[in-house]
Write a structure and sequence with these properties.
By secondary structure, this protein is mainly alpha-helical. Helices cover 60% and strands 0% of the residues.
Length: 96
């Protein structure tokens, strides 16, 4: 499918927002891992508390990442590549 220049700019803008959301998603994960490190070496908690928190945060992060990491043009999953230049499904350029 052919897209106008305006649509291509909008796709790049949408991809940039998607990429920012992916980075924002990594902050809670980092905080949970930091908390687990402090809990382990500071005042030990019962094992089930950090394990449940970690499983919950990881499950949430995976769901959000899969729903968020989509091509703005075709809505296809962008895969495991952290910063793809083009969508593998439709070939639209995602960033310069």
């Amino acid at each position: 499918m052919e897209y106008t220049d305006q649509q291509r700019r909008e796709f790049k803008s949408q991809y940039a927002a998607c990429r920012r959301r992916q980075w924002v998603l990594s902050v809670p994960l980092a905080l949970v891992f930091l908390w687990l490190f402090v809990a382990e070496y500071g005042r030990p908690l019962p094992l089930h508390i950090p394990a449940l928190v970690l499983m919950g945060v990881i499950a949430f992060a995976l769901i959000v990442a899969v729903l968020n990491w989509r091509c703005p043009a075709c809505e296809g999953y962008l895969g495991k590549t952290p910063n793809p230049k083009v969508c593998d499904r439709c070939g639209i350029e995602l960033h310069d």
